[in-house]
Amino acid sequence: MAKRFLLYAVLTLGAFVSLFPYLLVVLTAFKTQAQLSTTAPWLPGLPPTTANLAEMLAGDFPRYVLNTVVMTALLTAGQLLFTTFAAYAFARLRFRGRDVLFWLYVATMMVPSAVTMIPLFLIMRELDLVNTWYGLLVPYLLGSPYGIFLMRQFFKTLPAGLEEAARIDGAGPMTILLRVMLPLCRPALGTLAIITVISSWNSFLWPLIITSGDDTRVITVAIATLKSGIGVDYHLMMAGSLIALVPMVAVFIFFQKHIVRSVVLTGLK
């Protein structure tokens, strides 16, 4: 009983530490600017106010939310499409230099993303794609090393007999991929989709560098712009953060089984 009590105490403490920042976001979002200086951060403002949320929703913030939804949907669709084709080629098709090319591509995961930001920006500038949807999406639309690695490892776990039987029946590589392999890859595709949705929704550095107008501004950049040289509107910033947090909480609630499965599958790495 003592060990069990200690275990639950540690788990409770860990859960509190993990949830405390989100609690501060919720509490601060419902405080007025005057209550920020008169109330402790971990205490609610009385009476709570919804003026911060109303002010954010009355401006251009809904447009930024829509931009983020569009960006996340397109990046997720592109990742699932191109990553699946590339992973199938690396896992099942035979061509000269396949393994060398694959491991060279996977090795790029060791390169910090900040290192490639400036070259990517220079390429987008030469192509006149700065502050456009093409510049925002293209560098991350055609797959990622981690996604290709994940899908390739999953393809390699599937029995080769299924593919051979389909080939005997006259099926080509595309038919085998679409009708035989993909229906068996739903767990891996769900894992990749969840990872891509979360990373795309929280993306900040690249959208900050490549976009500057309202037509392409995403929610993370919009929240950062609330900090000016004069001061920080913490109550508005936390209201925007709360709006940005709600979709991710909904994703977790509705897809928690797939998220748990994704944690298991990412152990393939």
UniProtKB/TrEMBL annotation:
<dbReference type="InterPro" id="IPR035906">
    <property type="entry name" value="MetI-like_sf"/>
</dbReference>
<feature type="transmembrane region" description="Helical">
    <location>
        <begin position="234"/>
        <end position="255"/>
    </location>
</feature>
<feature type="domain" description="ABC transmembrane type-1">
    <location>
        <begin position="65"/>
        <end position="255"/>
    </location>
</feature>
<keyword id="KW-1133">Transmembrane helix</keyword>
<feature type="transmembrane region" description="Helical">
    <location>
        <begin position="64"/>
        <end position="90"/>
    </location>
</feature>
<comment type="similarity">
    <text>Belongs to the binding-protein-dependent transport system permease family.</text>
</comment>
<dbReference type="InterPro" id="IPR000515">
    <property type="entry name" value="MetI-like"/>
</dbReference>
<feature type="transmembrane region" description="Helical">
    <location>
        <begin position="136"/>
        <end position="155"/>
    </location>
</feature>
<keyword id="KW-1003">Cell membrane</keyword>
<feature type="transmembrane region" description="Helical">
    <location>
        <begin position="102"/>
        <end position="124"/>
    </location>
</feature>
<keyword id="KW-0813">Transport</keyword>
<keyword id="KW-0472">Membrane</keyword>
<keyword id="KW-0812">Transmembrane</keyword>
<feature type="transmembrane region" description="Helical">
    <location>
        <begin position="5"/>
        <end position="30"/>
    </location>
</feature>
<dbReference type="Pfam" id="PF00528">
    <property type="entry name" value="BPD_transp_1"/>
</dbReference>
<protein>
    <submittedName>
        <fullName>Carbohydrate ABC transporter permease</fullName>
    </submittedName>
</protein>
